[in-house]
Each structure stands twice: as C-alpha cells, then as structure tokens.
Amino acid sequence: MSDDDRHPVERDEAATSEAVAEDEGRTAGAVAVEEANRDDAGRGSTDDQDPDAWGLQAKIFGAIAVFMVVIAVVYWFMSYEAAGTTFLAVSALMTGVPALYLGWPRNRGDRAAPQVHHEPGHDPHDGVWFPDASIWPLAIGVSMALVGNGFLLGRWLLAPALVLLAWSIGGMIRQGRHRL
Q1: How much is the CA Rg of the chain, to the nearest whole Å?
Q2: How many Cβ atoms from other residues are within 10 Å of residue 2's Cβ?
Q3: What is the DSSP letter of 108?
Q4: pTM here?
Q5: If you ran DSSP here, which 8-state letter would residue 114 be given?
Q6: Which CA distances in Å does 57 have to 49, 51, 66, 100, 108?
Q7: pLDDT tens digits, one per residue of 75-114
C-alpha cells in the first residue's frame, strides 16, 4: 500500500487548495474571515459579495405578505367577519416584518466595533456562553400561566401562583449566580 493510498487527504494539499481557490474563487482563510464578519442576518461585509444576496428571501416573505393581504381583503368582502380578517391581516404583518428586515439595505461601515480577524479553522463564537439545561424557564412559564388563570378564576389561584412565580424566578437567579 503506497503512502498516497493511506492518506488520500494529505496526498496533494497544494493541488487541493488551488482547486478550492479556482472553484470558489477564495481560500480557506478568506472564508474564515468572511464568516467572522457576518452580521446578525448572515450578511457579509466584503465588497465582492452580491449586494442583493438576501433579496430572494425578502421577496419570498414579501410575496407571502402580499398574498395574505389579498386573502384578508377577499375574506372581508365574502364574510364581513372582523375576527378572521384581523387574523389574516396580522399574518400579513408577521410575514411583512421579516421581508422588511431581510430586504433593508445595510451599511456596515458605520459600525464602531473593531473587526476581529480569526485564524482559519477557529470559531469566532468560541467565547459565547449558553446557559446549562434548567427547569426554571419551564417553572416560570407554568407559574405565569397559573397567574393568568388566577386573574380569570379568582384569588384562590392567584395567590399560590404568585408564590410559585417568585420561587421560580428566585431559582433561576440562584442558578445564574453559580456560573459566576
């Protein structure tokens, strides 16, 4: 068995990197820098990037929003029902917001934050902390639902629900302090 057969990945690294550069027009280092410079919508800041890169997604959301508006108008004139028309209008609004967000032009040059260039292969989000698995968000959600029901059904449910809510919030705070 030859050395090329045992390590096919290392066989011709120079030719492989040249092929990647030819196929994509960029190197692995350029890809890592581009990933590190993306904004919250995933757009890059390089000048060679297509300025309308997110245009298709914006057009899809916009088309759905327009469709929902048309359906709301047709529904209103067919049924004269306010609730269904309102739900359809809110649906149009909920799809219109992402369309505006994705379609809105961004100028990243006016940001004051310094651009950090990471080495290829390093994740730019290495320092991000995510909380451990916890029961407290579920406990807070359940206690909030009980508080809402307490407002509807009476004080007999509201008082224990508020105690449970306070206990749940306290538990989440205690768990958060363990990280420090």
Answers
A1: 27
A2: 7
A3: G
A4: 0.40
A5: P
A6: 16, 13, 14, 10, 20
A7: 999 999 999 999 999 999 999 999 998 888 766 554 555 5
